[in-house]
Amino acid sequence: MDLGIASRAYIITGASAGIGKATAEILAQEGASVLLCARGEERLRGVVETLGRAERSVRGLAIDVADPASAEKIRDAALEAFGRIDGVVSAAGMSTGEHLRDFSDESWMQAYQVNTLSAIRLAMTCVPVMRERGWGRIVTVGSTAGRTADPRFASYGAAKAALMNATRALSRAYSKYGILANCVMPGLTKSESVLAGYESAAKHMGVTADDVEHRMLQLEPIAMGRTGTPDEVARMIVFLASAASSWTTGVNIQVDGGTLRDLP
């Protein structure tokens, strides 16, 4: 199946690791031009160099998407590099790791700024460019945590729930102009940040990282009996960012191995 990605240009945030990196890899392999955005300059440079070895059109921009000025800088960098913007994938995200009982305005605002506001700000900044061409794709990366309330990750879940709602609002506002907006909801995925969390918990508990994952699967079973991988989530993102998703908009799609059991 031809995804209609070749020759198109995409912006990807959170692109130096995990789901964002996996998405960048697939888009580049499919012939798209990609602007990779992330905070860590050294790691980002390594990803850009690796993807660019096959003479692909890959650029990198070290930037903090929580900075209100970042959206215009990202848009301008993409236009300077490629002369067009066909899609925006917002994979940047973070969890403060704060339990609800330790609530603070600062941590909740930080979660909202990174997980919600940065994605919507970037989308709104790029919408006029995509509207001129009459074609665009906006894909945000939510989380199953946005559908299931958990006091251990309350600020993260609340921010992702807001992102899911805002993405649907983008769809209702701009789909008639050819700009489709959708949200992917990963379940527990073995990204670098999750693996680091395993190691930290294992050290604290005096067990192995595999033991930590096993306990998590016991507490919150996944129908498939395992955690996901970044590329499994990325494949859904790439479909939604492609021409093949021409009649899919305003949806929150689970990619979670059967974690959520309730109807949406």
Largest sheet, if any? Answer: 7 strands, parallel
**Strand residues, percent:** 5-15%
Taken in chain order, the helices and strands follow as: EHEHEHEHEHEHHHE
> Structural class given helices, strands, pairing?
alpha/beta
Classified by CATH, the class is Alpha Beta
Query: How many H/I helices?
Result: 8
Distance between the termini: 29 Å
Please provide the count of β strands: 7
Strand sequence of the main sheet, in spatial order?
A: 3-2-1-4-5-6-7
The CATH superfamily label reads NAD(P)-binding Rossmann-like Domain
Oligomer: single chain
The structural domain count equals: 1
For the CA atoms, what is the radius of gyration?
Answer: 18 Å
Shape: globular
CATH architecture: 3-Layer(aba) Sandwich
Helix content: 40-55%
- Here the CATH topology equals Rossmann fold
| Mean pLDDT over all positions | 93
Low-confidence stretches: none
Keywords: Oxidoreductase
GO molecular function: 3-oxoacyl-[acyl-carrier-protein] reductase (NADPH) activity
Family: Belongs to the short-chain dehydrogenases/reductases (SDR) family.
Enzyme class: oxidoreductase
